[in-house]
């Protein structure tokens, strides 16, 4: 007659000591699976934590540093230049802690946990546009990315999608302060954002929710800058100094079919 299950004082069954458990021929194999999964979840947690911190630093570089720039195609003042370098140094330290975790196939395995790279591309592309009035290339973005972390075309494209929002906010603030669209007679921020938007409209449509959402936000940002420019031309003399347009999402045009 088999002995009963031993339980503790709370009624929970006591686990048998490991050395008393029978070992089958697949026991070692499943122990390896367990160890690999433990390593996978540990790596994923490290990547998620670093991604959150890199996202915060990238947003600070855009919001607290680059928003202080008021002109295009000029080098940054010393104070802003130092702030950008400081943020990038912090990002480099953070990414270096997970460089070994995102090599080879793991770079794609943890792709969804590395959304911070899109935020980093957005900040780098915004800084590049302010300094050179050009769109940063994938190669230039990779060269400017701290640590040995590979950027994918997806990171680059989605980071540029987010650039439209930064350009729209930059155009709104500088126009309110100066009374005109930043740029020169041949090229200003309105013509730049329209040209960039036309290039994105030529992209093959991807049947994903993220892509459709990014495209719709891009079109809204372009439309707001267009309304800003048209308002300056048609009613510019009637605008009081410091006037800022209403940036609510009140676009009367129907959304594109999904």
From TrEMBL:
Keywords: Cytoplasm, Nucleus. The keyword Secreted does not apply. GO terms for cellular component: cytoplasm; nucleus. Residues 1-13 have a biased composition (Basic and acidic residues). InterPro entries: Translin_C, Translin_fam, Translin_N, Translin_sf. GO terms for molecular function: sequence-specific DNA binding. It is found in: Cytoplasm; Nucleus. Its main location: cytoplasm. This is Translin-associated protein X.
């Amino acid at each position: 007659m088999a002995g009963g299950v031993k339980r503790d004082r709370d009624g929970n069954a006591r686990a048998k000591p490991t050395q008393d458990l029978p070992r089958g021929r697949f026991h070692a194999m499943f122990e390896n699976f367990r160890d690999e999964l433990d390593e996978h979840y540990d790596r994923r947690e490290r990547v998620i934590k670093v991604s959150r911190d890199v996202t915060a630093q990238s947003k600070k570089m855009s919001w607290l540093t680059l928003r202080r720039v008021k002109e295009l195609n000029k080098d940054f003042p010393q104070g802003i230049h130092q702030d950008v370098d400081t943020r990038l140094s912090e990002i480099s330290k953070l990414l270096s802690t997970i460089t070994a975790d995102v090599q080879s196939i793991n770079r794609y395995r943890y792709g969804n946990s590395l959304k911070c790279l899109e935020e980093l591309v957005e900040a780098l592309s915004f800084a590049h546009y302010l300094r050179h009035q050009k769109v940063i290339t994938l190669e230039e973005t990779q060269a400017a990315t701290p640590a040995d972390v590979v950027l994918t075309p997806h990171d680059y494209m989605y980071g540029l999608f987010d650039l439209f929002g930064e350009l729209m906010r930059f155009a709104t603030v500088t126009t309110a302060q100066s009374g005109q669209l930043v740029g020169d007679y041949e090229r200003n921020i309105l013509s730049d954002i329209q040209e960039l938007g036309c290039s994105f409209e030529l992209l093959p449509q991807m049947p994903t929710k993220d892509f459709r959402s990014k495209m719709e936000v891009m079109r809204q940002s372009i439309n707001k800058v267009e309304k800003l420019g048209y308002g300056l031309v048609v009613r510019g003399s009637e605008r009081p100094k410091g006037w800022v347009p209403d940036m609510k999402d009140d676009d009367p045009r129907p959304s594109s079919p999904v």
